[in-house]
Amino acid sequence: MEEQFQHIIFKFLSGEASKPELLKLSEWLKESAEHKKMFDKTNELWHLNEKKLRNVDLNIDSAWQKLSSKVKKNNNRSTYKPILISSNKFTIYRAAAVALILISLSLTLFWISDNFNNSKVKFVTIFAPLGEKSKVQLADGTIVWLNSGSSLKYAADFNRTNRTAVLEGEAYFDVTHDKSNPFFVKTKDVKIKVWGTSFNVRAYNNDNIVETTLEHGSISMQLPNQKKDVFIKPGQQLLFSKSSSSVQLKKVDVDVFTSWKQNILKFDNADFNEIIKKLERWYGVHILLDSKMKHSERYTMTIKTESLREVLKRIKITTPISYKIEVDSVFIYSIN
User: Fold this and answer.
1) How many folded domains does the chain comprise?
2) How many C-beta atoms surround the C-beta of residue 113 within 10 A?
3) At 225, which CATH number?
4) Same-domain check for residues 134 and 254
5) pTM for the structure as a whole
């Protein structure tokens, strides 16, 4: 069973996992705190082969022999060569040294055979399951927080030729400044150019609005049907509508849109649908609404350590609803 999930996780990291495999992985992560801890540590340190090994003097053949011996001793099964997502053969051997370092830190490295095509560009994908958050430091020192149900994809040679990351979902970026090599964030609909900046992007595929909020620094955005890039100043938020291509730039309380990375969920005059959408991702549940519900209430509240049931009780004080929670499904009914 463990070997099966090792394989799925590696497929996920390489961007090749199917939807059923992603669902299976998400359920596995919910089963145990140890599963989540192992996944988080691996996500956070996966990039170390790019950054750390430049300063590590290791005998690669010796590292591989020690690693093979250790794996055989621990699990008594045939050993696969570990490979990280890269386009050059040296990475296979470099990965052996990385694996040895990770094992010494009580981490688990995931294994597959070395059946791959060197001619293709390889990618790394970082993933935050529903109801969870992830944090990763990229090879250039940039730190990224991923919100629930989000993924970040970048080339294995990130920081060598370019600094481009592809986001699906929501992320907060604290980007390392590099004047000669700007950082780019791409979503399905927009492209953001960054110099050295802290900002939040929410770009879930099933949301109509792409929301970009700047905390520090300066960014510009390439938007569909816009002749010129749009520049954003600190404290501003740009809302781009996918359906109408309309653009709205406004001043906001940045903390409302970035506090999630500190495990605090804030709402400021949010409508009911916005509340439900964020609660689904925050708690990793599916919320089904009564078709008769037509609430126009708006909500301002902060969620820290409250359970979903406690939050629903709070909403019920001002909104005429009843609810039923069944495992990871929530049913909300109108009682008008």
Assistant:
1) 3
2) 9
3) 2.60.120.1440
4) yes
5) 0.67
